[in-house]
Structures are given as C-alpha cells and as structure tokens.
Amino acid sequence: MGFEHLAELRDRLRAENEPQKVERAKHPKRKSPPQAKPHSQDPAVEAIWSLQKHFPSAFPVNHAPKAPLKEGILKDAEQHLELLGLTTEQLKLGISTWCRGTRYWACMLEGAPRLDLSGQPAGVVTATQATHAKQQASRQRGQDRRHRAKAKASHSVSGSEVATDPGYDSTESR
To answer: At what angle do helices 43-54 and 88-98 cross, to 10 degrees?
Structure first.
C-alpha cells in the first residue's frame, strides 16, 4: 500500500470520526449511558455479578468480607436460574469460583454461621470444614510464593543479560 493510499485512508477515517468529536464537544460533561451489567469475557465473573446483584447478602461486593455459604446453596440458587439469567453450568462455575480463594477460606472459621441466599443463618462451619479451609489457604499461599519467586528469578535473569553478554565490555564506559 502506497503513501497516497494511507493518506486517503487516514482522511476517510478522520471524516468518519469527525461527527463524534463535534458531538462530544457540544456535551463534554455527558457520560455514556449506564449499562445493565458490566461486560466480561469470563463466564465465572458474569455469574458472580448476577449473584451479587440478586443476592447481595450472600454474595457481597468486593471489599466486604465473604461469609460461608449454606451447604446446598447451589440447589437453592438453581431455583432462580431465570431471574439470574444463567445456565446451570454458569451457576455452578460462579459458585465454585466464589467458594475458592483466600477471602472465602478466611471466613471459614469453626462455628461461623453459614448463610442462605437471603443472608439468613443456615448451619455452621464444622471443625473439619474449618481445618480444610486453612489447608487450602496455606496451599494457595505456598503456590503464590513459588509463583512470585519464579517471576522474580525470571526478571533478574533478563536484567543480568547485559553483564553476561560476551560482546559487552565493562571497561568501555570507564
């Protein structure tokens, strides 16, 4: 493609975008319309957003501490598939993702109340379940440490390439 074709394409794209710039200039403070729900490519995240929207007591938003969920919460949530706008597979994925991770395992303390979809107590965390959660959290921390160590080692290797380059003469800069 020659320069004249590129220039023509640039001019055409500018002309197509010009009405949008004028519109924005007329209304600089106007925000884009709110969307019903955030767009994501991750089906687990989509399912969790839906659960948080419809059952905020059981599925609190980010910085609120998580609470142990009732055993059998999946069966309860399946009663609301149409409301949630999810398939059974999406719901399973969302709940299993929610119940994995350090925030969830941290709330799994012996005797802690388990919550149903409406946020009402429906059972308690047993000693065995609390121990399992501690083991999962410990395993996750170990994996995170190993992952960070690998990344650090990889980063330090790439940073030391200058010193190990056979063509690099350290006396050159002196």
So the answer is: 80
